[in-house]
């Protein structure tokens, strides 16, 4: 992989996410993908990631905008910054009650790339900001 190929991979990753094309989205991951969940645990494996996304897609409707993607010269690392436009559809464990609240949340992600696929994704956003938005 080189820098441009990695940027293209991450573009495809987020395009599949925005299109809710879970097959295309999950096909961009290694089987042993590492997923560091914002302020949470680390999951390992495509099956765990698939379960996480099923929960997310049940509880939230999100689109990512204002995307900026950066990659290292060797294409092994990447980062993305974006804004999450979302709607809170169904109450998630330990979080405020869902009532269709809308939110806009700055976020970022870091990636490791291996064999042309995403081998690690670490997401960051301000959970307290989100809680304030959906509790208002």
Task: List its salient traits.
136 residues, alpha+beta, Nuclear Transport Factor 2, Chain: A, six-stranded mixed beta sheet
Tell me about this structure.
The chain contains 4 helices and 6 strands. The protein is of the alpha+beta class. The protein has one domain (3-135): Roll (Nuclear Transport Factor 2, Chain: A). A 6-stranded mixed beta sheet has the order 2-1-6-5-4-3. The radius of gyration is 15 Å and the shape is globular. The mean pLDDT is 96.
Secondary structural class = alpha+beta
How confident overall, as mean pLDDT? 96
Provide the low-confidence segments as ranges: none
Q: How big is the Rg? A: 15 Å
How many distinct beta strands?
6
Topology as H/E string? Answer: HHEEHEEEEH
Number of helices: 4
Task: Using the alpha-carbon principal axes, give the shape.
Answer: globular
The proportion of residues in beta strands is 35-45%
Helix content: 25-40%
The name CATH uses for the topology is: Nuclear Transport Factor 2, Chain: A
Number of domain units: 1
For the record, give the distance between the C-alpha atoms at the N and C termini, rounded to a whole number.
45 Å
Query: What's the CATH class, please?
Result: Alpha Beta
Q: What profile does the largest beta sheet have?
A: 6 strands, mixed
Widest sheet, order of strands: 2-1-6-5-4-3
CATH architecture: Roll
């Amino acid at each position: 992989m080189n820098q441009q190929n990695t940027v293209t991979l991450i573009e495809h990753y987020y395009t599949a996410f925005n299109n809710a094309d879970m097959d295309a989205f999950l096909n961009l991951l290694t089987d042993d993908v590492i997923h560091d969940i914002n302020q949470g645990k680390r999951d390992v494996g495509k099956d765990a990631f698939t379960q996480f996304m099923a929960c997310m897609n049940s509880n939230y409707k999100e689109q990512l905008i204002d995307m900026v993607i950066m990659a290292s010269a060797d294409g092994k690392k990447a980062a993305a910054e974006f804004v999450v436009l979302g709607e809170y559809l169904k109450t998630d464990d330990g979080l405020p009650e869902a009532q269709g609240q809308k939110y806009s949340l700055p976020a970022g992600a870091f990636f490791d790339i291996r064999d042309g696929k995403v081998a690690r994704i670490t997401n960051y956003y301000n959970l307290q900001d989100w809680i304030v938005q959906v509790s208002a």
